[in-house]
Amino acid sequence: MKPVAFEYVRPDTLAEALAVLAERREEAAVLAGGMSLGPMLNLRMVRPKTVIDISRLPGLNMIEIRSDRLVTGATVVQADALESPVIRKELPLLALALPWVGHFQTRNSGTLGGSIAHADPSAEVPLCAVVSDATIVLRSRRRERRVPAGEFFVGALSTARQPDELVVAIDWPRVSPHEGHAFEEIAQRHGDFAIAAAACEVVLDADGHIGRVALGLGGVVDRPIAVDMQEVVGTVADGATVQALARRIAANLEPMEDHTATADYRRALARVLIERVMLRSIEAAKGKA
Amino acid sequence: MSLRVAPDQKQRVTLTVNGKARSGFAEPRMLLTDFLRHELQLFGVHVGCEHGVCGACTVLVAGRAVRSCTRYAVQMDGREITTVEGLAEPDALNVLQRAFARHHALQCGFCTPGILLSATQFLRQNGAPSEAEVRDMLSGHICRCTGYAGIVAAIMDAAEKMRRGE
Fold this sequence. Notes:
The complex is a heterodimer. By secondary structure, chain A is α+β, with helices and mostly antiparallel strands. Chain A has helices at 14-24, 37-42, 78-83, 85-90, 92-97, 104-107, 112-118, 124-131, 149-152, 239-251, 263-288, and strands at residues 7-10, 28-31, 50-53, 63-66, 69-73, 135-139, 144-148, 153-155, 158-159, 166-173, 179-186, 196-204, 210-218, 225-227.
């Protein structure tokens, strides 16, 4: 299908983009790589009066180290992120997740900020942002606002972004030296939307006990979620402990149901994926201790 | 100054296609696919699903394989695009296209132009791919005729011939 007729605006500066957004608010849609908005426009799932094309805005496609943080601009193309040695070194979890994002051809166009702003429940970049405790940077004509990823994703395709705000960057904590990471997902075919995905980062203390751990799930409920892992901190977390923990976490989930999977199947996948990413990230952390 | 195009306004779009300067007119909602076909008569750009899933409409924009159905023509001012018509001289086939013919990598041919363009970028980046890497790249295309085996064989064969400088 073809989109409904819309006005096209291609601002030259961020200030102009924010002015149009402030004027059009809910009637505007922001276009960068078009890998989420394009299909929604063509299928007429969205009917914006104005489309604001930010793909050529200067300053939004940087990958920049700022002391202990790494800032990725909203329009960084996923293929560029995948090829970036800085991201490979500083954000290993995101580097592990990017090959799972869509296909070769969609990563050539889709952006990091687009994935965050679109907030598909099964999307990989939002899941990494939640697990890594990244901050989403929003700008409006009035102010800059910084929202922790854990609070940004409100529900399916729904975020804390206000109608006059633009996602301008994602601000990630840089990797610490002894972190181990793992990312895993299950889809009908590679590149399809994940039925369930899991991401984990672990730091072991000097005795091999778990010092810090963050684990999150995507595609299971209506948004990426972080799982409370407090009970395993300070333990050795051997195979049996991890198995029992995965079973307990999965039992407490209330997964979505759709044409690809029942709630029970998603719960079973979540259990298996939690086990895999925990054991794998612990192994990876041992290698760095 | 920012560019503003009203919903029913036809905007002139000037770009480079297959090495030549071209221009045409597009309303904001005109898909790049439709612009290439109807304004520039490049009918090798095929229209499949029109929502970014099947890969039939794939073209190279600045050397990268992208879906042309989820980009809009007005976005493309000044860009460099390659379609299947630009892969070889008219009436000739390049190494990759000859490998497709040799390995029966096409039957109805509907998905073929898109796959050729994806494979073109892919082989530029990775001259010695594994079969698994080829299949991963192909996951972005739907072919309902061949079962993909011939396509994989053709791309592997073309990679080897290119390495030998053919």
